[in-house]
Design a protein that fits this description.
Elements lengths: L6 E2 L4 E3 L3 E6 L2 E5 L4 E7 L2 E8 L2 E5 L3 E3 L2 E3 L3 E5 L3 E4 L2 H5 L2 E3 L2 H6 L5 H16 L16 E6 L5 E7 L2 E5 L4 E5 L2 E5 L3 E6 L2 E6 L1
Antiparallel strand pairs: 1-5, 2-5, 2-12, 3-4, 4-7, 5-6, 6-11, 7-10, 8-9, 11-13, 13-14, 14-15, 15-16, 16-17, 17-18, 18-19
Length: 201
């Protein structure tokens, strides 16, 4: 199945409270109360959401090496619309009816303006991405987030259990229990059980 077959639900909702969308030892993604939320569907199943509110992304992307710590944490305020796939069952219980004031608070004159922006975000994200099975973003497969960056592209976070991949404009960070890879413009760091190998560029 192709993710180009995604559809946005006709109903826009809002978060009834601040929600932790993802949390693990390495980081957290949060969204504020009263954030706009529109479900992403494949067929009759909800597979994710487009959110627009005041969010936060925190990631521990520091690698400990024999020579000291390399890298720095990611701390990002999220005030642009972003996409989340997975984790829909728990979120669905914490959404409520939206009002005209909620749209105005986020800078929209009407629901159609938000729907058009959410559709554009989805179209750009799903473009040329083929998914073999619509199940691959189910609860058992973790979550994927797509955040706008300054290059008008996406920073991507994919997480499942202890496995984490974060790809941004200037870095790639991969972590799985005691194995870590950090790629930045100046160096590549490989770490396993606190034994590390650093390649300077």
């Amino acid at each position: 199945m192709m993710w180009q077959n995604h559809q946005l639900d006709n109903t826009v909702l809002k978060t009834s409270e601040a929600i932790t969308l993802w949390k693990a030892d390495k980081g957290i993604v949060e969204i504020s109360e009263n954030a706009l939320a529109v479900p992403i569907k494949l067929g009759d199943q909800r597979k994710g959401y487009v959110f627009h509110g005041h969010g936060k992304l925190l990631l521990d992307t520091i690698v400990e090496t024999e020579g000291g710590a390399i890298g720095r944490p990611v701390e990002k305020e999220i005030d642009e619309p972003f996409l989340m796939l997975g984790g829909t069952e728990e979120i669905q219980k914490r959404l409520s009816t939206v009002s005209a004031e909620d749209f105005a608070e986020m800078g929209y004159g009407n629901p159609q303006e938000f729907a058009a922006r959410a559709e554009d975000l989805c179209d750009r994200f799903f473009e040329n991405r083929r998914i073999c099975s619509c199940q691959c973003f189910g609860e058992e497969y973790g979550s994927i987030f797509a955040f706008h960056n300054k290059a008008s592209k996406f920073d991507i976070l994919a997480a499942k259990g202890s496995k984490l991949v974060y790809k941004a404009m200037s870095m790639v960070f991969v972590s799985n229990e005691n194995k870590v890879v950090l790629k930045s413009p100046g160096e590549v760091v490989l770490s396993h059980n606190r034994k590390s190998f650093v390649i300077r560029r």
